[in-house]
# Entry
Amino acid sequence: MDEFRPDPDALLAVIQKDEARQQRGKLKIFFGMAAGVGKTYAMLESAQQLHLKGVDVVVGYVETHKRAETELLLEGLEIVPRQRVEYRGTWMEEMDTDAILARRPEIVLVDELAHTNAPGVRHRKRYQDVQEILEAGIHVYTTVNVQHFASRADAVAQITGITVHETVPDSVLDMADEIELIDLSPEELRQRLQEGKVYTAERVETAANNFFRIGNLTALREMALRLTAERVDHQLQDYMNLKQIAGPWKSGERLMVAISPSPFSEQLIRWTRRMAYNLEAPWLAAYVETPHEPTPEEKQRLTNHLSLVRSLGGEVVVVSGADINEGLLRLARQRNVTQIIVGKPLRHPLQSILRGGSLVDRLIRASGDIDIYVVTGDKPEGGHSIHFPTPTSHSVWLQYLIAMVIVSAITVLDLIALPYIGYQAIGLLELLTVLLIAIYVGRGPALLAAVLSALSWNYLFINPRFTLEIYKVEDSILFALYFAIAIFTGNLTARLRTQERQARNNADRTVALYALAREIAGAVNMDDVLQTGVTQLGQVFDAQVAILLAEQKKLAPQPYPSSTLTLDDKEYSVGLWAFENGKPAGRFTDTLPLATVQFIPLNTPTRTVGVIGIRTRQQERLSFDQEALLETFINQIALVIERELLDEAAEQSAMLKESERLYTTLLNSISHELRTPIATIKGASSSLLATDANGEARLELTKDIQSAADRLNRLVENLLDMSRLESGRLQLKQEWCDISDLIGVAVKSIDYCNSSHPIQLHVQPDLPLVEADFVLMEQVIVNLLDNACSYTPPGTPITIEAKTNNQYLEVTVSDAGKGIPPDSIERIFEKFYRLPGTPTGGTGLGLSISRGLTEAHGGTLTAENLREGGARFTLRLPLNSSPPPVQEAQHG
Amino acid sequence: MAEGAQILIVDDEPQIRRFLRISLEANGYRIHEAATGHDAILKSAQLRPDLIILDMGLPDLDGLEVLRHLREWTKTPVIILSVRDSDQDKVDALDAGADDYLTKPFSTDELMARIRTAQRHAQPQQDEIIFTSGRLKVDLSRRVVTVDGEPIKLTRTEYALLRLLIQHAGRVLTHQQILREVWGPEYVHETHYLRVYFAQLRQKIEENPALPEIIITEPGVGYRLVRL
# Structure
């Protein structure tokens, strides 16, 4: 029964699609086979109906083409004014997306989805404007014809002979919540055309003879119907998935299309996309980097192919390998691909034989259980079947020249040596020369050297000399062998060289990535991470880089300080767009391509943490492999930033927890400590108010009030000290202090303690002055004395000792109590920690404050138990310098 | 002498004013109250009190500003009330001409003692020639210092310090005031001079120099000579 259970991933996908749709505005597409079927009319008609019902529907952009009946339908609808854009001296009108977003209607009408915007408008294509409007939660009604869908564009071109330039990705169709097919029979359409309802009179004739031929229209209509039917099928599928209706579950197909720089790959990609859509299968496009070095044009085409794959919703994978088949199959197995789509080879049959059968033959042989589809393409113009590199640069010409010069030079030398060594040895010598040349020059020059030397050997050395004829059979064999070996080695070494270069490129890339990964992993904080990111990106791509981070879900107004690129307002707004939409924008992208900076969002699985703006010094777009590297770089940086943010968040929440804990402890601790004296004051004072208290009792009560007030005062002072220490606002008023004087003041200020515990002073005579804050240090000693008094039985002595010890001034306060439990010796310095079973009256703050104050002075405060019983607290203050000399007063 | 003297209490807290009024009236003083700095300046001019108790934290004017206003035209003794955190406020107030200070919270005993000292200094002084405090006896006319009847030798600086404190006996003198008077205005930051000389002086005149009773250290502020 297992096969009837819906795949959880599939279910999730359906639900996610649903959820995404609920937040987004809904997209309704009025869909037709060609212009003039009445899409705009139908759209306006529904708009009018909604308008009558009181729905807030506005016109974002409608092109009436001056059709009277259409214009009539615009009446009564609010029209958002178009924006005017200047480009090279002419003004053009475009839809004003920002005005629509600001207006926030319920529904907006946007005609001609496939329209390409004028340069200078935020997006290159109108469908991107529509996506943005949908993201903002506004519903969109739009119109589009079947020939504008990217996956149908080539089919349309085949049928009608007209290449469609304005395309929209098929994913837009997937996005639509509703599709209304506006169908009209071809005859009716032509009728409308003749009546002048589609185009103005002067264009009717050409249109009727070209695009609007009956054959064309029939094909387009079929295509439109099929596309609609496929979609209905899909919706049914989604519905069945959701409702767990056992149906024809697709069997986990996964498609992979092999692409190359060949123009034919574009058709392959579209074909695969269509098939994947019908199969409901995920698909990817694989490009195998081979030792064959692509030319700049090829690279450009390849980049276009890869972006086509992305725009059609496919995944791009680039692998390296000497052998295309091997690379493809390895990838296919890794990714569980079930079907591989390849183009029918256009190689010259001879070349196929040389390579041990055509690529497809060998692929089919090695593919095992993977299905291979071989798709025929149109013969591309220019014939790219056999590739000869076109020498474009001086260095290539120079290589040809070098090859010829060397071959000529060796030939001259051989002519001199001929009488001594014979023509056969000379053949071998020339072969060696070809081999050596091939190591240093490209394939072309190497082949030239091979041909030249073979011919010159034959012409100059093989009998009969000075002819290309050969008499002896063994000489013929020798020559044929020579020719084969020369070409083979020339080819082979040249291939080895490119392979080596590629390996080096790969290695460079790996090294760059490794460097980034290592440096970023070693970064200890956000500053480090971003600094590293900027430096590495700048070095590897020879670019200026700006990083903008998100602050409370908003983009920071300024680049991060370590950025090497400053942004003006215009560029910043591009970055902002990239951030808010989580998509690349600016230079080399489809959105705001006129900007001078390319912005790439720092996307992590959960959110966008910022954007990176990059301005490469080179003016052309990065090559596909560099772009892949850039993408990897930026992903890596995004993940590390995310990690740092999470760390910070974790740290903050830990701090928050800790402060919450302290807060609770504080409340518990001080609520008791506050209440006791307050209760005393309240009780005693109300007793005093009662008139019958006699003289003696009044005195007692007043004393109680006084001591309770003292206790409250101590508590408040402690809390204030603590908060000053904690907030870092504590400012030491350093002055030269006489510790002996300081101890004296401290002892006098706690006479309550002095009366219960005999205090013994042992102060080393001639103690040096020490730099400290007199008031704060006095308080430390008072706290220690108070502590000793509170926790030892009355009558036991307290000893204060002050002496120098190495570079420290040491003050100890020892008592004769029962000491501190060994496991609590460090804990007693913690805030609010009180030894269990100790009498009330303390706050648990005194020792903590004392240690804080001492450490603020660069000193230490420690506790220990004495062998003879009791505890000893040792305060050490550093004696860093001695005060300047003292002088007598001059007058007095 | 003190009987019937008029005291102006400047504090914005009614409870503080009330308890001061009760305890001071019980000691025979006549009390006026002011809740703001402006009111204080006005009432000082109108009522000509014999002594002013001035809180440093007032709602309208800084206590120090009020003090400076007052000192422009009157030498009426001023006792400052402040909180513990603001040692510098006390020092500033003393330097600006306040006669003494009290840190909140304080007891009425302390307050009475300060009031008496301040009043004494406000009296036109008939020059004291012989000063005694406990075992210490100083004959200012002959420059002779005896402890328990035994004459002791003081250096010139020690004597200058002692004489200065005697002139202001009972009142606190800030470090700056002492340094300026004894060493000169350019020495006001050399507080370590004071640590050294007061330690020496105490060795000579105090019974237990570690717990001095005649020359008292006022932490963070200065020194005070106590009349025992």
